[in-house]
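Quick check before the chapter quiz. The format below is the same one you will see on the exam, so make sure you can read both the input and the output lines.
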Amino acid sequence: MIEEENIPSGNEPFDVKGASHERILKIMGLLVLAGSIVTATLVSLRFGAGVLLGGFFSVLNYHWLRVTLKKFFDRAVEGGNGGLIAVRFVSRYLLLGAILVLVYMTGIVPVIAVLFGLAGFAFAVVAEGILSIFGSAKAR
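Here is the expected output.
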């Protein structure tokens, strides 16, 4: 049963930096670091470096997404137009695509390794979901 005092009224700011948020970032860092060490050991140093590079771009992409969405919604609340902010939102994908093309063209690290690193945030979200499910089951 939901207690009424726990229901947000919509007037207070939403805290996106809760415990789950911080845990996702920590899990992502650990997964990328562990993945780069394991792949550097088992596959090659270049592959491990590619995973690490992709993880770095994943963090940058996440930060850029968070800042852009915050600005977009702040502007929407004020009644403004978010056209330029929407362009910044889409430009993230263009920049990441350009980086992947550059990595592919130069062959400095395997593209698949960079993609694994970029997926680090998604892997961390899945891991956080699994931890939350089993954590809430233990609490019962």
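If your answer matched, good. The chain has one domain: 24-127.
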